[in-house]
Amino acid sequence: GADFYRTSASDVWNLKKYIVSQVTPVEGGRKVEVTYDIATGGQHTETFEAQWLHAFAPFVGKALNASAVPAPKIQGTGSMLGELYRKRMPWKSDVEMPTFEAATLVSSEEEQIKFLEAMICPGICLIKGVGTPDKLEREFAGKPIEELVFKLIGKMNQHPVRSTNYGVMRKTAESAKQGADYDMSNPLSMHTDHSVYQGTPGFLQFLYQAEGSVRSKVCDGLALAEYVKEHHPKAYKLLTEVQMTHSSRNTLYTREGAPRSVYDKETAPAPFELVNTHSIIELDAKGNVEKVVQSETKRGIGALRYEIYDDFMEAYELWTKLCEDDRFIKHFHWPEGSAVVTNNYRTLHGRASVPPEMNRTMAFGYVNKILVENRYRLLKQNQAERANPEMDSRWLTRVPNQVLERMVLASERDQCC
């Protein structure tokens, strides 16, 4: 139906009544006409896009000879970004950071595709022209980035307690009272965010410079992992197999969602516990780096087995030193009214350097991986339809990512030709 749902759950009951009696290529082979004999009498004809059938063929087709390659299986949801994941390259201090203009991103789906692809590799970018907020008060300071993210992807993750779905940090003594994360004079080590959240819900991290211009730094967790794998294979095995815990108790906000000082004994917090046990370098089913999770400030009390403790802590010390190694750290200028976006599964970041006389207000928020994956899926569907208007939503929706990826790649090949 128009809502992209099946109109009736009983449709499947009638399938056995339809038997294919004739298949005819039409329109020069771009389409296939299929005629069905109906068990109750009569015939029915449907016309299929050949590209759609070709995309499904490896998964559902019957092999015509015994030597045929075994049919691949649709295993799991897959990803339209899968090809980019497979082609990721590590980077070091000399990496060129991709730059986008906010207005162009909003107006162009092609530019949005490039942006999301940049978030897989290299996993960092700078968005200029985000603008500055009308007011710097908490409820307004992050509005420009909140509105931009909504237009590009959707709503940012909602914090368990905070009244806004973005946080705000300032270079003030009052802000520093919220703890080490909010104290801009505290030189945080390189880290990923959401290390204490199970599953790491913050896939993309948006860091918006609402006030002030600073110098900041990032490094590539994939490059660190590849370096350890090549030069310290025993340490790599430990960092990918041994699980450690990050944990904290959050008391940074009131029950009304307003920030509070952790030293304030008069204002009641809205506390919640967080714990996440995982390997520092997480691998996918094929042994590729899927995620790095690193935050020394939020490292919990370890429960490592006695016989591996010394070896693991030696590997972890190596890892933390590499995180601060200048060979891997990219320094960059971060002007007022712009946003740095990182792939929080891959990119580590550190504390920005703020000039002594500079006022600074920074807002930050996150978007989960499922939202990003499905936004990219929609953008690639729209792109494929623009390339071939007859391959519209009737053919591009409600299909597995593995099949859709074949259709999209076919459309891109046709455009190149």
Please provide a written account of the structure.
A hairpin with a 4-residue loop joins strand 2 and strand 3. Helix 4 packs across helix 11, helix 8 packs across helix 9 and helix 9 packs across helix 10. The model has no long low-confidence stretch (mean pLDDT 92). It contains 13 helices and 16 strands. The two termini are 35 Å apart. Helix content is 30%, strand content 23%.
How are the SSEs ordered, and which strands pair?
Blueprint: E1 18-26, E2 31-38, E3 43-49, H1 50-60, H2 82-86, E4 99-101, H3 102-107, H4 109-118, E5 124-128, H5 138-141, H6 143-152, E6 167-170, H7 173-176, E7 204-211, E8 214-220, H8 221-231, H9 233-241, E9 243-250, E10 272-279, E11 281-283, E12 289-292, H10 306-323, E13 329-334, E14 339-343, E15 347-349, E16 361-367, H11 369-387, H12 393-396, H13 401-416
Parallel strand pairs: 4-5
Antiparallel strand pairs: 1-2, 2-3, 5-14, 6-16, 7-14, 7-16, 8-13, 8-15, 9-10, 11-12
